[in-house]
Amino acid sequence: AIMANNPTNQRIIQLQQGWDEEIKVKAIDVLEDMLNGGLKSGKANMFAPKEYVNIYTVCYDMCTQRSPYNWSRELYNRHGETIEQYLTSTVLPALREKTGQGGTILLTELQARWTNHQIMNKWLKKFFTYLDRYYVKHHSLPTLSQAGLKHFRTHIYDEMKSDTTAAILALIDEERDGEIIDKTLIKSSVELYESMGMGSLDAYAADLEAPLLDSTRAYYVKKRQEWIETDSTPDYLIKAERALNEERNRVGDYLNSASEVKLLRVCEEEILEKVESVLLEKEGSGCRVLLANDKSEDLQRMFRLFSRLENGLNPIATIVEQFISAMGLECIDKRKARLDGGEKDKNDDPKFVRSLLSLHDKYLGVIKSDFSGHSLFQKALKDAFVEIMNKNVGQFTNAELMSTFCDRVLKSNEKLNDAEVEENLDRVVQLFSYLTDKDLFAEIYRNQLAKRLLNQRSSSDDSEKIMIAKLKMQCGTQFTAKMEGMLGDLAVGSDQRSEFESKMKQHKSKLDFSAQVLTNGFWPTYKSPEVALVPEMTQCMDVFKTWHDEKHAKRKISWVFSLGNATVRGVFGKKSYDLQVTTLQAVALHALNEGQSLSFVELSEKLNLEETIMKPLMHSLSCGKYRVLTKSPASNKINNTDTFAANPKFSCNMRKIRIPMASLDTNHSPKKLEDNRLLAIEAAIVRIMKARKTLQHQQLVAEVLSQLAFFKPNPRVIKKCIETLIDREYLERNADSSQMYNYL
């Protein structure tokens, strides 16, 4: 019967016999002795191949015998019991003995026992491999390795984790306080916590990470209170940054990388978020003080640290905006103080404009370098300068002062090279972008551009084109169309002039005559008095008109004498001078030629000019810097009773003299600007309603405001325009709601 059941004539191994005589004596006892340090021979690290094969064979045979002698279940259970017995009788008492002797001692013992357990688990798995291969798989049981880990978790880890966690946290706090600790020991302990999760980080998160976060919070609450009381804002932030860097390095040195975000978040909450307002407003060292003292490095650190918080930069941006606004208002107050102190209010205040340009340059640089060009701070700069640039002091608006500054830069008497001109224009256009009344700037700039072009005072056509291109980029084609047209007129005019000059040579005129043709819609409107011209001038004009009508039959030309200029040869005593004057001045000088003396009224009738034009005209010739005429009685004011004659005593060191005359035209008309704005508002309303057909009042007002880029109208003005358009039957009120409009 035995031969039938066991054809290979293999002997049957009884359970107790195989366990006691083979497995326990030759494997388990030897392994435990090795782990406890009982064996000093070279076999301390592993079994010899022959020994291992013998033990494996016994286990194999005991698991492959036929029932009822198949001991797979019993061996699986005894594998677990062996590990349990060793852990509870040897390992746990050894660890408890080390408790209370110091964190390093306990963790060192734990590490040694964990290493031993891994060795034991490895060898038992090797001896009982056949169980893993068949019995465990068929019965859906934990593998031998998993079972070994579970026993360690149940009997050692769960029993000791509160003590070992406390030991780890104590060592971490020691390191935070500057002491040197065994990082390798903590790293290996952390790996044990990770292993106890059996493939997940649940054990690590619950048993080490959560207490670590609580401990970290408590540590930094205490540190925060110490630092905030004793340190300035920059010193506090230096310590905070150092602490955050150390915590990040700590994770890299021995904690799981998943803890980094949580650990740093706790630190940020405690040492940054909870004291942000205190740090920013701290007397003597807060954000305003750092800005005022140009503490770039400290501001960069502040930005770096508070950018870690969700809304940490908002309070800083608010302070930056308030600070820049205050600095800008200081510039405005200085201008006001100068005017209050008796300085004449002029539309030319380069000192004020340069102070604003310098302020903008400085804080544009601060925002780029110290705040990394962050959008919040760019908005802070913009909002601050919108407030500054739209706060006017004195008779002239900031728009006018800026336009006049551009006029200075672009005039030929400003000694700037091309690069300096472009740099100045760039800076002005940046400030221009903050103006609400861009249309006012455009109107003034166009008037000044016209004067530069017509009086040949512009330093360079290229510079004029560059400025117009910058404005075009900022505001679009519509904004600069007239200015571009003005430059175009002069470009075309130069070609036509050379053609006309050849025509004039045929007429052998005494005068060197030329005319500039301007397109009416591009240029500002000018006063054009019908002055009684010299016959030679009239002849030249007739020749030009005939020539122009032949070339452009459908165009009508009208003369603007107030814009003309002339060079008059004047002989005073033995010296002759070339007087560069306006056409009106030239005609007045001609009237007093050859020693004639005329009263104000006689001269006015002879020239056919009104009193309002005569007074500035005669003032320029008899009361200005170059008094080529005398008037009696002598005074600096022109009266209707004055008499004028050539000044025989006139003398000057220069041969060429430019005699300026006050402009007969105001730079801009507020009423005209207002009318243009009303037209723009009405056009926007009609454009919107044509597209939308029906719209509610508030929506219409909002859309009009968003479309009008060159100025910001008052909503009441928009409402008035809507009423006007209803009266003119462009719109109607909705029958069901007075707040709704329909497009007609």
From TrEMBL:
Keyword field: Isopeptide bond, Ubl conjugation
Organism superkingdom: Eukaryota
Domain Cullin family profile: from-to ranges: 397-622
Cross-referenced InterPro entries: Cullin (IPR045093), Cullin-like_AB (IPR059120), Cullin_homology (IPR016158), Cullin_homology_sf (IPR036317), Cullin_N (IPR001373), Cullin_neddylation_domain (IPR019559), Cullin_repeat-like_dom_sf (IPR016159), WH-like_DNA-bd_sf (IPR036388)
Pfam family, one: Cullin_AB
One BP term from GO: ubiquitin-dependent protein catabolic process
Keyword Chaperone: no
MF terms (GO), sorted A to Z: ubiquitin protein ligase binding
Family (UniProt): Belongs to the cullin family.
Official protein name in the record: Cullin family profile domain-containing protein
Top-level taxonomy: Eukaryota, Sar, Stramenopiles, Ochrophyta, Bacillariophyta
